[in-house]
Write a structure and sequence with these properties.
Structural class: alpha+beta
CATH class of the largest domain: Mainly Alpha
Order of helices and strands: HHHHEEEEHHEH
CATH topology of the largest domain: Arc Repressor Mutant, subunit A
Number of helices: 7
Bound molecules: zinc ion
Largest sheet: 3 strands, mixed
Low-confidence stretches: none
Strand content: 5-15%
CATH superfamily of the largest domain: Winged helix-like DNA-binding domain superfamily/Winged helix DNA-binding domain
């Protein structure tokens, strides 16, 4: 099982997606995307805002939040499934799966070919158009296990 993120040029993909949807590539949008992408922790809008603010002190939370929502609508970012509020964003659109720690709420990406190959049940594929498959494993992460005495 590989836990590494496959190499991909994320900035090039961001630009291509923006062009595809006629979204102007402003410095503001670029910084928001960069910060969302830099975090490996499936960040909330608030966590991204805190980072963006360092570079763009005058930006409002609302602007960051709205930009993230429009990114997710255009398929530039993913929203982590089933997490509820606050939303958590995922910049990695390549096939991958999640391990979710029930104690510290960390979400860790992992890559596993056999999970990518899971068949969609026919009753589902007949009814719905499936665009993504994700396996979510839940449990206690390595850090939380180690901090237990
Ligand atoms: Zn944990
Ligand atoms: Zn992920």
């Amino acid at each position: 099982m590989s836990i590494r993120r496959p190499k991909e040029n994320m900035m090039a993909r961001f630009k291509a997606k923006c062009e595809e949807h006629g979204l102007k590539i402003t410095p503001q949008r670029t910084v928001i995307y960069e910060e969302a992408f830099r975090s490996k922790a499936h960040p909330t809008a608030n966590a991204i805002y805190e980072k963006v603010r360092i570079k763009l002190p005058n930006i409002s939370f609302d602007t960051v939040n709205r930009t993230l929502i429009s990114f997710s609508r255009l398929g530039i970012l993913d929203i982590v499934e089933g997490y509820g509020d606050p939303r958590r964003y995922d910049p990695d659109l390549s096939p991958h799966h999640h391990f979710r720690c029930v104690q510290c709420a960390r979400i860790i990406d992992f890559y596993e070919k056999s999970f990518d190959l899971i068949d969609i049940p026919e009753k589902i594929s007949k009814m719905f158009k499936v665009t993504d498959k994700k396996v979510v494993l839940k449990g206690i992460c390595d850090k939380c296990q180690n901090s237990k005495t």
